[in-house]
Amino acid sequence: MTSAVKSTLPEEARRVTCEALQDTLVDLVGLSLIGKQAHWNIVGPRFRSIHLQLDEVVSTARTYADTVAERSAALGVPPDGRPETVAHGFTLPAPKDGWVRDSDAVQVMVESLEAAIGRLRERIDATEKSDLVTQDLLIAITAELEKQRWMFDAENFPREG
Amino acid sequence: MTSAVKSTLPEEARRVTCEALQDTLVDLVGLSLIGKQAHWNIVGPRFRSIHLQLDEVVSTARTYADTVAERSAALGVPPDGRPETVAHGFTLPAPKDGWVRDSDAVQVMVESLEAAIGRLRERIDATEKSDLVTQDLLIAITAELEKQRWMFDAENFPREG
Amino acid sequence: MTSAVKSTLPEEARRVTCEALQDTLVDLVGLSLIGKQAHWNIVGPRFRSIHLQLDEVVSTARTYADTVAERSAALGVPPDGRPETVAHGFTLPAPKDGWVRDSDAVQVMVESLEAAIGRLRERIDATEKSDLVTQDLLIAITAELEKQRWMFDAENFPREG
Amino acid sequence: MTSAVKSTLPEEARRVTCEALQDTLVDLVGLSLIGKQAHWNIVGPRFRSIHLQLDEVVSTARTYADTVAERSAALGVPPDGRPETVAHGFTLPAPKDGWVRDSDAVQVMVESLEAAIGRLRERIDATEKSDLVTQDLLIAITAELEKQRWMFDAENFPREG
Amino acid sequence: MTSAVKSTLPEEARRVTCEALQDTLVDLVGLSLIGKQAHWNIVGPRFRSIHLQLDEVVSTARTYADTVAERSAALGVPPDGRPETVAHGFTLPAPKDGWVRDSDAVQVMVESLEAAIGRLRERIDATEKSDLVTQDLLIAITAELEKQRWMFDAENFPREG
Amino acid sequence: MTSAVKSTLPEEARRVTCEALQDTLVDLVGLSLIGKQAHWNIVGPRFRSIHLQLDEVVSTARTYADTVAERSAALGVPPDGRPETVAHGFTLPAPKDGWVRDSDAVQVMVESLEAAIGRLRERIDATEKSDLVTQDLLIAITAELEKQRWMFDAENFPREG
Amino acid sequence: MTSAVKSTLPEEARRVTCEALQDTLVDLVGLSLIGKQAHWNIVGPRFRSIHLQLDEVVSTARTYADTVAERSAALGVPPDGRPETVAHGFTLPAPKDGWVRDSDAVQVMVESLEAAIGRLRERIDATEKSDLVTQDLLIAITAELEKQRWMFDAENFPREG
Amino acid sequence: MTSAVKSTLPEEARRVTCEALQDTLVDLVGLSLIGKQAHWNIVGPRFRSIHLQLDEVVSTARTYADTVAERSAALGVPPDGRPETVAHGFTLPAPKDGWVRDSDAVQVMVESLEAAIGRLRERIDATEKSDLVTQDLLIAITAELEKQRWMFDAENFPREG
Amino acid sequence: MTSAVKSTLPEEARRVTCEALQDTLVDLVGLSLIGKQAHWNIVGPRFRSIHLQLDEVVSTARTYADTVAERSAALGVPPDGRPETVAHGFTLPAPKDGWVRDSDAVQVMVESLEAAIGRLRERIDATEKSDLVTQDLLIAITAELEKQRWMFDAENFPREG
Amino acid sequence: MTSAVKSTLPEEARRVTCEALQDTLVDLVGLSLIGKQAHWNIVGPRFRSIHLQLDEVVSTARTYADTVAERSAALGVPPDGRPETVAHGFTLPAPKDGWVRDSDAVQVMVESLEAAIGRLRERIDATEKSDLVTQDLLIAITAELEKQRWMFDAENFPREG
Amino acid sequence: MTSAVKSTLPEEARRVTCEALQDTLVDLVGLSLIGKQAHWNIVGPRFRSIHLQLDEVVSTARTYADTVAERSAALGVPPDGRPETVAHGFTLPAPKDGWVRDSDAVQVMVESLEAAIGRLRERIDATEKSDLVTQDLLIAITAELEKQRWMFDAENFPREG
Amino acid sequence: MTSAVKSTLPEEARRVTCEALQDTLVDLVGLSLIGKQAHWNIVGPRFRSIHLQLDEVVSTARTYADTVAERSAALGVPPDGRPETVAHGFTLPAPKDGWVRDSDAVQVMVESLEAAIGRLRERIDATEKSDLVTQDLLIAITAELEKQRWMFDAENFPREG
Question: How many angstroms separate the CA atoms of C4 and B157, rounded?
């Protein structure tokens, strides 16, 4: 049943492209979960401000996770966003369990978004040859995550040492 | 830092209540992930109809997960919805990886929602004594999931044998 | 085909609960019909004000009738809201045919809502043991009908003798 | 009190016109009730799609029932949409009680709408002489019901034998 | 410059049709002015209710006045809605100057709408032969004004003697 | 019945203020009628642009006419906006009957708004002593009409000689 | 498969009515295409104003084309709006290829709408006997197209000679 | 800490202005509370109409109370709207406790608004010299309260003796 | 006039229930006033964030105060929310007059909401026997206030000592 | 008049780019017409679901056709979307005339979108050198059409043989 | 071409008034630019809160700049808001280039708004004689800027030394 | 403090990219100012049409200026949009001071947008290597400005010599 949906890309291009999409999917679903984790557990004088900002990360991550997964399906490869897949594949920095100080929440989001961006930029290179349509999507995600990273970084000034 | 937020419940009531909330959180976050998994991978003549219906499950699960987690925080216990916690604690039936036939997607949602409802009804009993406010929330979630279970069950007629 | 949709309640609880729901459904569909009847046939100096208020009763009755019927289906018992079922089972006070004076319309709505509330409070007791989720729904309907009864009662001052 | 509202039509024209309106009112209120009945009790693989489509019939029937009843009042004849009047006067095909297969629901709606349309076309002829304003309303209702009949009929292909 | 806009009707049909439209325009602009007059000057225990209802007459009259005037222009005859034309041609019952009791406002609106309807029904007959498109518009206006007349008439019960 | 509504102003202040309001009411109702007249009858290459602009004048005039009339009522003097009052009291430049060239429509609006503004500025002076609340309203109307006058004047360049 | 959808009209009435609908469909789809063509290619000092006005023609034509086609289906005759059918059957005046001067765009729209209206008026006569419901739809389309024709004609003053 | 926010007014002007604002704040908060009191406790045949009208007074009073308090803060003087301050400073006529007849509610609102307006007009004079910006705000509040007073007064005809 | 509105509860249940409602009303009106007081007078680096958060408390308190008061009226007991009643009965912690540091505002809201919640939980127990409908309302209010208390408490970390 | 609008691209780049745009325009206008054709004529048990899905194709095709045509105009080449041009240039698979089974409609949309995508990918290559701005637009259209193709393909499982 | 638009003010009044407007225009355009500058470059723990607040200043400044410029045009004097005019005439305190600490951004906004207010209050005096309509606009701008100044000042507590 | 926000690009890529962004920022802020200048000062028969079109340029320029500036900040380089920077760096054609004829406004917008587009196309080349995410943004801006340039150019036909 692996060929339920036909691909519009040649085999190798499809493999490269959909690997990039699957890895991005795991990063984005993971980001949406840890963004909510921080949203719920944050404490400190900047609680309300960061609490709201974190929900914008979650919203962005959810929307693009959907687009990324559906793009993979559109190319003929079933995406995988199940709990165990995400838990196993997610490697970005994340908050510890329990309450999180506001400054720690800001710091971990800067690091996590930075790591996600680094991985996305590699996939932008990887898909240059395999599928310009997917590359364009990865560029759009990067633009948005870089904007969000900046806002946490600016919030983080002067940096925690 | 475990006492960052004070509780308005006595210790034992808080323990019982927040255990119920934490377990519900894992079920709901898990449901939102497997709902999306089926939403992306479904194939078959009922694709569009079930594809849309699954997004309503996801939307419900996300909204109540947020309410449940914030209720736990409000009672002084930090909720945990991180990828590894969800993957480890999630025990409801879920779709396999790869493409999913529409009839299989319907069947797995009936089973998954049914299992979630059974667990919620136990927690409604458990919180009767510990916290009526939380019980009221669990009742509301059960009402919504029972409605969604019915719709998949009705869609599933005559039942897959 | 009576078992097309499975129940999440044990047999006896389901019987008690769904009887309460079916009786409530008939009351609410009936209320929506007699509310419209008064809405169309009212005459007198308070025409516009009561004409509008009656449409709020209709809107409330329609919305809750839908929720009540779908809750019964969700519990595995098919609801019955067909014309002959409603006509046969509906026992609340109602306007006569023909034009209705505004003061008479107010009076009949006070009486009809009062009777409906009395019956709902009995069903709240009856479902306390059988299904807390359904009880919660009946409580919500009672709250709304008691509010509407008050507004007609206040409008009815000094009471028609 | 039968002359609470004056008519703008001569006596005979009023009689013919308001008879047509009263009969249409019963058909439309009845349609709204059996549409909901099918909406709640439908089962089968097309559950969601037909469940939603039936609510559009209900919405159409309710809106035009209101317009038709108020037109009768405007012409000086009090309309009658009480439960017993509807139950007694409603003669269109309707679903049985209990669960309804999706294909049966479609079939019964085709038949019920077809019967309603036939009766409306007779009333369009009858009001040609008595009141062009009412005729125009009946034409508009017919256009809408014919559209809805087509959609169920198209859904019904190949026809149930 | 009388032929600035060409007509799509033959000369005689145009004459008959546009006369009906011009007369309707004067009635509707006049209605919008006297509706506002009553809206501003009404006093009595039903002030708020009738004050709001009168604005619905004004809104209806303004909208249809615009449609009627543009239909005349579309048929090649310039419409005339200037103050002196309206003052000279407007013959419907209207409120006196100064404060108006609520019951008097209701009474005058019943009479004014009744007169307008009588004139519209004559024009519906007149345009049957000359232009079915214009006739259809006059039918729609009549339906709306008859509804508004009924609402004031129902409000007027028991009638002022 | 002249004292149906009490005034919050002393007698003389009320007289001066309400005269200013009554005159403004006639100007604004008149403007709304001639604005529509030009809106319907305009011809020429700028038809659509001016047709839309004229409706903004009408909308402004209607809104402020309502505020002005209700202000007079609030001060205890019944306003008069009946057809014959407007026709008799309206003295601003207005379009002739029949089709109106676009450049003529622009020109007449410049002149009519200019005349209205001149009269408003006199009333701003007149109410300085009698009622600052009314003066503030007249200032707001002047601001809006001066803006509209400018837009027609700019449209009118180079001026018709 | 020609009888997939049953008709509610007798055979001959259906034939006459659906011919009128099919011809109207071609005219409207064609109008929507040439309206866009002019919308894209117009040049000249009135560019923006006519560019926007043309999109209103397109929007009208698309909406009514949909209603007309679905009415034909509702009467049991499959409508045909495929590219070759439209190209073959469309006979209304249309813009040449390449850039179009604004005055030429106005002129061609006047002519094209005029031709469409003439054909619609014939079909209003033709369907008087065969189907009043369809006739009512054709009347509504004519009203709208005559309004749009007037607006281009007024824009076209003084007429291109 | 009295100088936490700097003033943009000289000392004496600030004192006069902020006294006027503080007194207005107490009147408006008080009005919002007694408006709600009457909204909840009104009985009689005009219940619904006055019940809704009273909520408009409450909404107006709340909105302007906020503006007035923030204006005082903006001028460097902390406003005081605490329960005891309002109870102590509020002197306008108010409803008794318990149910309130509709005619009594109308009467008390006329009196209360009239008293509030009288006090506002004094403050308009007082701030003429001290702060034109504040005066402009007081003028706007007066305009709105005078409108609301008129509507209750008109509703009150013929006046309760 | 104490029996203007009839109760649907027996005498003793009504007494217990309406005492709980009246006390809740005073707490909520008081909370809305001190929430605004803090909203206006807050100073410090978290001004904007807390200023906005306080308005959410005010909005919640106002909405539930309305529901609570109308529930009391619906049960036949006139609620009392007049300034002196609120000032006399309100006992929750509140800000002092004058400017309020942001950290003090947060601290006082934590304490005030905590006290309100403690009182609400007692009333939830008290109404368990007397009226489940009212209990359900008190549970909903408690859920909302506990959420708001948590947000201020989280903002308050590390706690002011 | 071919140079009415100047180009911002050099001659050769303009030629290559605008050829790609013109061909895309024909494909998209054609798609919008055949999407509607299937939307109107579809029959079978999936009628409603596919009927709605087809309108999303039409909406996408119309929106991008507009963007593509205006991009060509912006580059100085007049686009051509007239009926005969579309009929002549359109080569994608399309439904036959008459009723269309739902499975056939799905199949033809998969094929038609697949063909359109293949042609778009060639144009993405062709415009890489000539105009990156146009290439970006073609990439966006491809992303959307590939998503729509996937949804029909998933609906089409198991594939028609 | 200096007299393209005629003035409704005498020469000297126009000169005084339009000078006030031109100077205000430069201040407001400048404020909108430096508000954005701070919005983009702010860093520090209050980043998000002040980042959003600054956009409200920008929005206010842009809206009033438009009103002020169009008022000058309406009075017959062309406003000047070109880059070099703004750069040359803008004298309010502004942020340095490069990143801006949140506390510095707050401080500079307090100072800049304070300076703008001082200049506006002079212009309120200056236009008292020349044009009350313009004075009213300057009063409205001052009210808004004083509110925004207060919010930054309150945020700035305890003040930077 | 130049390193307040870290970059996600290597040093040289960052330099090239942010230079392109800073230059684009100046062009866009400048365009927004001169667009408004023309919007306020335009005179002539096309006043309204161009007045509205210019506001669309302003809206586009403001939105993209914000995106461009925030992208630079996201890359670690503080953007500069202060009045003196814009005045100094802005080199696109602009309207003179004083009134502007409509044809001159169109001409200057064609030239200014054309110059801006030429500069953007160079930056698209420059950022191809340094940052594909920024390049994608510059491509989007170019698409929009080329569309706006075309609309003014088409309006400009036949071209001013």
Answer: 7
Q: Which of F4, F8, F137 sits opposite H154 (nearest CB)?
A: F4
d(CA I152, CA I95): 15
B118:C73 CB<8 A: no
Collapsing DSSP states into helix, strand and coil, what is residue C101?
Answer: strand
Contact K57, K127 (CB under 8 A): no
Residue E159 C-alpha, separation from nearest chain D C-alpha, in angstroms: 8
Task: Please list the residues that pair with G42 across neighbouring strands.
Answer: G100
Q: For the structural domain made of L11-154, what CATH number should be given? A: 1.20.1260.10
Opening angle at CA B44, ends J61 and C74, nearest 5: 105
J47-74 vs G11-41: helix crossing angle, rounded to 10: 30
J153 contacts A133? CB cut-off 8 A: no
Paired residues of K101 in beta bridges:
K43
CA distance J103 to J111: 13
Element (H, E) at G100: strand G100-101
Could you tell me which chains touch chain B, where touching means 3 or more CB pairs under 8 A?
A: A, C, D, I, J
Which residues in chain A have their CB less than 8 angstroms from residue K51's CB? 151, 154
How far apart (Å, rounded) are the C-alpha atoms in residues A100 and H71?
38
| pTM, 2 dp | 0.97
What CA–CA distance (Å, rounded) separates A38 from A55? 9
- E strands within K15-156? 42-43, 100-101
Residues whose CB falls within 8 Å of the CB of residue A59, separated by 6 or more in sequence, listed in order: none
pLDDT tens string F99-153: 999 999 999 999 999 999 999 999 999 999 999 999 999 999 999 999 999 999 9
Helix (H) / strand (E) containing A100: strand A100-101
B102 min Cα distance to partner chain D (Å): 10
Contacts of K129 (CB under 8 A, 6+ apart): K13, K16
Largest CA distance in chain G: 55
Tell me the two tokens of residue E130.
Answer: 């000359």
Confidence (pLDDT) at K5: 87
- 3-state SS assignment for residue J97: coil
Question: Would the CB atoms of L70 and A146 count as touching at under 8 Å?
Answer: no
Q: Which two tokens stand for residue E125?
A: 């007959």
Amino acid at H87: A
Is the per-residue pLDDT at K95 higher than 70?
yes
Terminal CA-CA length for chain G: 53
Higher-confidence position of E138 and A159: E138
**Cis before F158? omega within 30:** yes
Tokens standing for residue L158: 């036949």
Find, among E85, E88, E37, E96, the residue nearest to E61 by Cα.
E37
DSSP letter assigned to residue C2: T
Residues 6+ apart with CB under 8 A from L49: F49, G46, G48, G49
Give the C-alpha separation, C146 to I2, whole Å. Answer: 18
Task: Identify whether the C-beta of residue J71 lies closer than 8 Å to the C-beta of residue L150.
Answer: no
Of I92, I108, I129, I116, whose CA–CA distance to I16 is shortest? I129
K104-127 average pLDDT score: 98
Chain I touched by C143 (CB under 8 Å): yes
Q: Give the C-alpha separation, C93 to A151, whole Å.
A: 64
CB H126 within 8 A of CB H138: no
Contacts of H75 (CB under 8 A, 6+ apart): H7, H8, H9, H14, H17, H18, H21, H131, H134, K146
Secondary element (H or E) of residue L78: none
Q: Please write the tens of the pLDDT for every residue from J60-105.
A: 999 999 999 999 999 999 999 999 999 999 999 999 999 999 999 9
Instruction: Please state, in angstroms and rounded to a whole number, the distance separating the CA atoms of residues G6 and E4.
Output: 49
In sign, the C-alpha dihedral spanning C135, C141, C147, C152 is negative
Residue with tokens 């006297």: E34
ipTM: 0.96
